[in-house]
Amino acid sequence: MLEKVGLAALVILTYRAILRSRLPSLWSGPAIGVLFSLGAAITMIDPLVVGPGIVVDIRVVMVGLAALFGGFWAALIACVVTVAVRISIGGAGMLPGTVSIIMAAVIALVFVRIRGPRRDLGNLALLGLAISLSLSSVLLMPLDFVINTAAKSLPVLVVRNVLGAMILGYLLAMEENREVEHNTFKELAERDALTGLSNRRALEVLERRNPNHDTTELFCVIMFDLDHFKTVNDTHGHSFGDAVLARFAEIISRRIRGSDLVVRYGGEEFCVILNDALLSNAARIAEDIRQQLAGEVFGGDVTVTVSAGVAQSSEDEPSVYPVIKSADKALYEAKRDGRNRVAIHAE
Q1: 157 and 277 co-located in one domain
Q2: Can you give the C-alpha Rg of the chain in angstroms?
Q3: For residue 275, which phi and psi values (nearest 5 degrees)?
Q4: 214 shares a domain with 176
Q5: Residues 207, 184 share a domain
Q6: What is the CATH number of the domain that holds 54?
Q7: The domain spanning residue 233 has which CATH number?
Q8: Both 266 and 225 in a single domain?
């Protein structure tokens, strides 16, 4: 019993690791297939023996759950590996055992196609019942065995499949839901509620992931600061100011690429990280954004301008924060020289 609990825990912990690895979908399915095939193989090491060479375990449950949680490739890998292990075990039940594994994989894939990848208890119970159809492979055994042994064990085996699918499947679904909630909370923690942009935590995450920016590609930073924004807030109200901030965030987002990062750096300050960009291109983008904001009219007759500072990384200074500091210095120069302009940091 303890071994079975340990196996379930191993499967759940490994599944969690796969979810958190952020593997692309092309690889997550096969990874899940390998996981469930190993689970099936382990269950066959310590099975219920009902006769010479005839064993009963939850391998078909593992194959069925592979289809539900990992899709086609997971089911295929789990099926192939489990069949190979069953053949290597041999015995009188090798042929019906192999057929039952293949049947379970096909049934599970058809089930998921019809019912969808739902993980609720009802669907898991139905999956357990569906893959129990693979027990019909026992008809490949001698008739006297089917009548005297298999028929008596059939109800217990069906219950075992249903309970196995429900219990292990539900625990895996809980782990999946927990991971979704974790990612949602993490996303919210790194997101500015007003503009929908990333907040400063995103810069910290970026720096932790690649503190030395080990790449030959240079990046640029643009620091924006809305001119006289406090006066805008004081004169027209904070709701008006919020509308200006949200619109400016939209202008920036539409001008940059998906690979770039936009951060609401402070109250009216915005930071843009342009990956693989030349300083001249970054300055042009900053100027385009400045001009577009200057052409906007808010509340019928109010215009707002923005100043910007631009800086580029170098081989000597590949980290994000020093480049932000340089862009901030350039921003100060733009403010000092009259605002509503773009300044470039000079080495």
Answers
A1: no
A2: 30
A3: -75, 145
A4: no
A5: no
A6: 1.10.1760
A7: 3.30.70.270
A8: yes
Calculated CA dihedral for residues 142, 148, 149, 155, nearest 10 degrees? 120
Bridge pairing between strands 261-264 and 48-51: unpaired
Same domain? 243 vs 169: no
Of 39, 53, 128, 65, residue with least CA distance to 97: 53
Phi, psi (degrees; rounded to nearest 5) at 339? 65, 175
Q: Give catalytic status of residue 268 as yes or no.
A: yes
| Range(s) of the domain holding residue 76 | 2-189
What is the total count of domains within the chain? 2
Residue 140 domain-assigned (yes or no): yes
Instruction: Please give the DSSP secondary-structure letter assigned to residue 319.
Output: S
User: Which burial class, exposed, middle or buried, applies to 112 when counting CB atoms under 10 A from its CB (0-12, 13-18, 19+)?
Assistant: buried
Q: Which of 189, 211, 228 is the last residue of a domain?
A: 189
Q: Which of 175, 207, 268, 317 is catalytic?
A: 268
- Write the DSSP string, 41-80: HHHHHS-EEEETTEEE-SHHHHHHHHHHHHHHHHHHHHHH
| Type of residue found at 271 | C
pLDDT tens for the 347 residues of the chain, in order: 444 556 777 788 888 888 878 667 678 889 999 999 988 888 877 666 555 444 567 899 999 999 999 999 999 999 999 999 989 988 877 898 899 999 999 999 999 999 998 999 999 999 999 999 998 988 888 888 777 776 777 888 888 899 989 999 999 999 888 887 777 666 666 788 899 898 888 888 777 766 555 555 789 999 999 999 999 999 999 999 999 999 999 999 999 998 899 999 988 999 999 998 999 999 999 999 999 999 999 988 899 999 999 999 987 777 889 999 999 999 999 999 999 999 999 76
